[in-house]
Amino acid sequence: MASIAWLIPSLIEGSGGHRTFLQHADYLQQQGHRCLLYLENPEQFSSARLRKDIKRMFGYDFQEIHAGWSNIQPVEMVFATVWYSARVVRDLPFPCVKAYFVQDFEAQFNPMGDGYLMAENSYRYGLYPITIGRWLPALLDRQFGVAASHFDFCADLGIYRPLPEPKRELAVCLIYQPDKPRRCAELGIETLGIVKHCMPEVKVYLYGSKASGRVWFEHKNLGLLSLEDCNHLYNRCTVGLCISSTNPSRVPFEMMAAGLPVVEAHRDNTLYDFPEEAVLLCEPTPESLAQGVMDVLASPERAQAMGRAGSAYMASRPLEYGLEQFQATVNQLLMGAQSARSAPTPLYRRSALVAEAGTGNSSPSVIDTMVDRGRLAFLPPAPRKLVRFVYYRLRRALAAVKI
Predict the structure, then answer these.
(1) DSSP string computed for 104-145
(2) What is the DSSP string of 137-201?
(3) Distance in angstroms (rounded) separating the CA atoms of residues 71 and 74
(4) I need a labelling partner for 146 at 20 to 30 A (CA). Which of 26, 97, 221, 333 fits?
(5) Residues with Cβ < 8 Å from 296, sequence gap 6 or more?
(6) Which residues contact 253 (CB under 8 A, 6 or more apart)?
(7) Which residues form the WsaF C-terminal domain (predicted)?
(8) Max intra-chain CA distance, the chain
(9) Which CATH class is domain 171-315?
(10) Distances (CA, A) of 288 to 87, 199, 283
(11) 186 pLDDT exceeds 90?
């Protein structure tokens, strides 16, 4: 068995990214590999404190934990896990397998500029990428000519599962993380503002962060939830909304495992891993995403069919399946083999759902509701009322002229 070092960014409580690479490092040590963690934290942090923090935040226990990336011991394999650790791995002075655990196209975490280009450069350093999901290998091959292996999005089916006789509410839940721009919190809130305006009886649950933004409609913010509580939420709701712009999140796959229909944005990064029967991909506008959510909410038969399809799709993707895929690639790399892999192709081939503009009937169109419950809701009450008053006066006047 091999010694494997992991260069990990500073811990963030509730971070799905940290949970994922710690989970995979833990699996390797369960299989007999020796895993050494090097955390970005200042070197005055004690190993005992870091070990305790990892166990408290994520439930994993590692014997060998070090603070800082300046004194990495010679090992047989080293993983970069964030873009700015890739150069550290590239420059290590001892021979080893240099690998890159890639969960997102991290260049897009940054505005276009130095940070974006430097993050892109991390894929040019000769490290071998192992990605979560099928989109990133396609992107790395297309844009950088870099071959990569992947493991599939899976879920812990012991946690995420349909509960006996779930009592579903007319409700939608949104993974709401305003501190992570890639999670598109504002787009999600504008989407649900339209849904709540058109279907005021719908309950809205936000979760996933201690942060709170400015939300103008009735909702319940559940904050950080345990994994078990997430499953209960997915069994309570009718639709799950999760928007992720730099790779799919693991959340929609956990929603599917629980039998919850998913609405996401239709973009290149979401076309490679989602089944058409369980997920509805919409043009990434608030109007279209809202239309998708409302289409599922309005049809119990469709919601049930999507839920069954999602649960069936994930039944063959237990957590162990992805972990075994990952371990097989690690073992190949340690033996000096890099299997030739063709770039994946999209799984989702349907066109994006696009909301139509109003047809002149008396009910407000999805487009019109943006004036009433979209960005204007961020204005103070008096200006907001004035703008709405003027808008609807003009709308009636234009309608009278057409007549």
Answers:
(1) S-GGGGS-TTHHHHHHHHGGGSSPEEEEESSHHHHHHHHHH-
(2) HHHHHHHH----EEE---B-TTTSSPPSS----SEEEEE--TT-GGG-HHHHHHHHHHHHHH-TT
(3) 9
(4) 26
(5) 238, 239, 261, 263, 280, 302, 303, 306
(6) 153, 154, 155, 273, 314, 317
(7) 172-292
(8) 80
(9) alpha beta
(10) 41, 15, 6
(11) yes
And the tokens for 380?
């103070």
* Secondary structure (3-state) at 89: helix
Backbone angles phi, psi at 332, to 5 degrees: -60, -45
In 3D, which of 132, 160, 157 has the Cα closest to residue 316? 157
d(Cα 109, Cα 247) in Å, to the nearest integer?
11
Q: Which of 24, 123, 37 is nearest to 325 (CA)?
A: 24
Higher local confidence (pLDDT), 240 or 357: 240
Task: State whether CATH 3.30.70.100 applies to domain 3-126.
Answer: no
Taking the mean position of all CA atoms in its chain, how far away is CA 195?
Answer: 22
Question: Which pLDDT tens digit goes with each residue over 192-243?
Answer: 999 999 999 999 999 998 777 789 999 999 999 999 999 999 999 999 999 9
Do the domains spanning 3-126 and 171-315 agree at the CATH topology level?
yes
What's the token pair of residue 360? 């002149």
- Residues 6 or more apart whose CB falls under 8 angstroms from that of 138 comprise 272, 343, 344, 345
DSSP letter at 353?
Answer: B
Question: 167 falls in which pLDDT band (50, 70, 90)?
Answer: confident
User: What pLDDT score was predicted for residue 230?
Assistant: 98
Give the number of other Cβ atoms within 10 Å of residue 201's Cβ: 8
Question: Rounded CA gap, 152 and 10, in Å?
Answer: 26
Instruction: Look at residue 400 and tell me whether its pLDDT is greater than 90.
Output: no
The 8 Å CB, 24+ separation contacts for 186-190 are 186/213, 187/243, 187/265, 187/284, 187/286, 187/289, 188/241, 188/243, 188/289, 189/213, 189/215, 190/286, 190/370, 190/374, 190/375
**Structure token digits, residue 37:** 């963690």
Strand partners, 78: 5, 98
What are the sequence ranges of the domains in the chain? 3-126, 171-315, 366-402
> How would you classify residue 282: left for phi > 0, otherwise alpha for psi between -120 and 50, otherwise beta?
beta
**pLDDT range class, residue 337, cuts 50, 70, 90:** confident
DSSP 16-30: HHHHHHHHHHHHHHH
How much is the pLDDT for 371? 47
Copy the structure tokens of residue 402. 């057409």
Q: Which residue has the tokens 């240099």?
A: 98
Quick: pLDDT tens for 248-277.
Answer: 999 999 999 999 999 999 999 999 999 999
